[in-house]
Amino acid sequence: MPTLSERRRFPRVAYAGTVEIRTRRCAYTATPQTLSLGGLSVQLDEELELRSLVAIHLQPNPRAPAIVCQGRVNWVTARMDLRHTPPIPHDVGIEFLSLSAGARRLLRLCVDELRNQEAAPAYRPHLKPTTIHGRQLAPFLRTDTHPSGDWELLVYEGEHCCYEHRFPTVEQATRGWRTFQDEITKAPHTTAAVR
């Protein structure tokens, strides 16, 4: 018999970035728990109405592009085991409803990166986002999408990918990120072409 994780349509990964949930009445900063391509689970000190619509703002790290979308509250569980007096924490599951193509791609990159970190944290360098000439650039590395084992370097400016290139090794991909930064620094008025 398959386990719950095997039956899931979208496998979950642990998520530690920031999450802001907005209802019609309030905005909440939630404690993140898990993230998948289909939604996320968070903990709040408030109970959200089941099936209610919310706005979601995910920030994987402070300098990476934010992922913004609509969602629906699919389940709510009061955590009386954590606290017996108000405010009672609630675990909340939210399904993503309306992701733009750019937000969906950023979400996939975020989930892939987190999954790779869980699987082999020692093999993945952390590439730091940077701002050059007012452009906020966030790099992502991934390997699991190519059967060849190549490393793919993607650089995002907001929700849009402004650079994409495959490298045979992680070292070359890391050098590719430095080279990309150098090119942008030298040519501030050009937009990097997708490669």
Give the proportion of residues in helices. 10-25%
Gyration radius, rounded:
19 Å
Return the string of H and E elements: HEEEEEEEHEEEEH
Give the oligomeric state: single chain
CATH topology of the largest domain: Thrombin, subunit H
> What is the tally of beta strands?
11
Q: What does the largest sheet look like? A: 6 strands, antiparallel, barrel
Spatial order of the strands forming the largest sheet:
2-3-4-7-6-5
Number of helices: 3
Q: How much β-strand is present in the residues?
A: 35-45%
Q: How many angstroms does the end-to-end distance come to?
A: 45 Å
Low-confidence stretches: 1-7
User: Do you know the CATH architecture of the largest domain?
Assistant: Beta Barrel
Query: Structural class of the helices, strands and pairings?
Result: alpha+beta
Report on the architecture of this protein.
The protein has 195 residues and is an alpha+beta fold. The protein has 2 domains: 4-104, Thrombin, subunit H (Beta Barrel), CATH 2.40.10; 125-186, no CATH class. It contains 3 helices and 11 strands. It has helices at residues 4-7, 101-119, 170-186; strands spanning 13-14, 18-22, 27-35, 39-44, 53-59, 67-78, 90-98, 130-132, 135-142, 151-157, 160-167. Mean pLDDT is 81; it is low at 1-7.
